[in-house]
Amino acid sequence: MRTPLNEALETAARTGWALLELPARITHRIDTEAFHAALQTAATLLHRHTTATCDTHPQGRILEPRDLAIGVAHRSQAHDINTLRLQHYPSLHGITVDTANRLQGREYSVTIVLHPLSGRWDASAFHLEAGRLCVLTTRHRHACIVIARAGIASLLDSHPSNDPVHLGVTSRSPDSWEAHHTVLAHLAPHTISA
Questions:
Q1: Do residues 62 and 26 make contact, with C-beta atoms less than 8 angstroms apart?
Q2: Which residues fall within 8 angstroms of residue 163, CB to CB, at 6 or more apart?
Q3: Does the predicted model carry a pTM greater than 0.70?
Q4: pLDDT-based confidence at residue 91 (cuts at 50, 70, 90)
Q5: Does the CA dihedral 49-39-78-104 come out positive or negative?
Q6: What mean pLDDT value characterizes the chain?
Q7: Residues 20, 147 contacting (CB under 8 angstroms)
Q8: Which of 54, 105, 110, 141 has the least CB density, counted as fewest CB within 10 Å?
Q9: Where does the chain have alpha helices with state H?
Q10: pLDDT recorded at residue 166
């Protein structure tokens, strides 16, 4: 059956990337629809008996819950997703659901990421932080599926970077505003609207 979720999974299988874009809506931290989308994505991967092939498993290996992670910006989001997982997705026992800070240094076959700016009305320094976005989008070995509300690019454009500029000095850290635009540009050809 042709659904946005199936299209996102097929795109991720082909390219290693997918952006499942939900309709624009201000939700702040609590976005139950996005939480369910992340959990349904993981459940579908397991239900399909998705196989990953790599140097350690050249013949392929069917993914298990321990091979998947859902990454978020806030501990409260991880808590809410875990609560929904326990109530509605028993097949996901063993999946990791955690914040970018706690996922740092870990690796999974597939990661499902709730974009830090999804559903926001503002682009605060916490949500713009380039390191957080970098960690969330680099914990995967095979595929990263980003789930986000439409409108992030417009949000960034209406909240331009206010980092101080020092003439003649090269910045040691990436510009957060530019990092988010770069990631969105990378995801653009892999975007499926829900």
A1: no
A2: 175, 176, 177
A3: yes
A4: very high
A5: positive
A6: 91
A7: yes
A8: 105
A9: 4-15, 32-47, 75-88, 100-103, 125-128, 130-136, 152-158, 176-187
A10: 55
